[in-house]
Amino acid sequence: MVRPMVVGRTVVVTGASRGIGRCVAERLAQVGATVLAVARDETALQSLPGGAVPCVLDLRDTDAATATAEHLLAEHGAPGLVISNAGHSIHRYLAEYTDRFHDVARLSGVNFLGPIAFLLPLLREMTATCSGHLINVSTTSIDVPLPGWSAYTSTKAGFDVWLASVAPELRAAGVRTTSLHLPRVRTAMSAPTAGRYPVPELTIDQAADVVCRAIVHRPRIVRPWWAAAGGTLTGLAPGVADTVFAGILSSGRRV
User: Fold this and answer.
1) Is the CB of residue 34 less than 8 Å from the CB of residue 80?
2) What is the rounded distance in angstroms from the CA atom of residue 6 to the CA atom of residue 80?
3) From 93, 97, 152, 197, the catalytic residue
4) Catalytic annotation on 152?
5) What is the DSSP letter of 72?
6) 167 has a pLDDT exceeding 70
């Protein structure tokens, strides 16, 4: 079902050197897409299968992100599909980073500012051709914010809100958008907090399945039912949620 959506088309995948991004890049290259694989790790990118074009970029450098996007457009034209997957996560409580603002700045670069700097030229050309699809790989932490994830969640939420705001403009110009709120995925990045949360987890392959279904069906948003329900309850009674989590932390347990 994915093949006819991408065969012969240019697809951009960020964070393609490992994890979800690499799995998706490999799948799409194998079904005939020209995959522009974007990531920092040049060695890992070089080991992707044929059909994947390595593109080395550190999204924290916003000037480089814009320049790289312009270069890709000049070489390959407007992409038919962009999967904005690159991200960075830190689990750190407020008391642990009050003297580490650079942590917030680093996450903002990877999760918020860098992706926007990279996407703006691409979206300019996609809207000019009145076609294309942008998929944002995000997190259920946006729906149910948890202590210890403030820096990570806020930067991911910033991009998600930006996308929600421009989505109607893009839709009017013929470009579809999808935001995937994934639960915890078992990757090297998430390994330090393994087993800490009583919610379903996904393997990398399962997360890639979600991305592939989004390519085919192009929904506006995808999230687990429990994240949608939790977000509704938290929105209706934020003080109750604060009290519950404060009680957990006061007992000496870590969320």
Assistant:
1) no
2) 8
3) 152
4) yes
5) H
6) yes
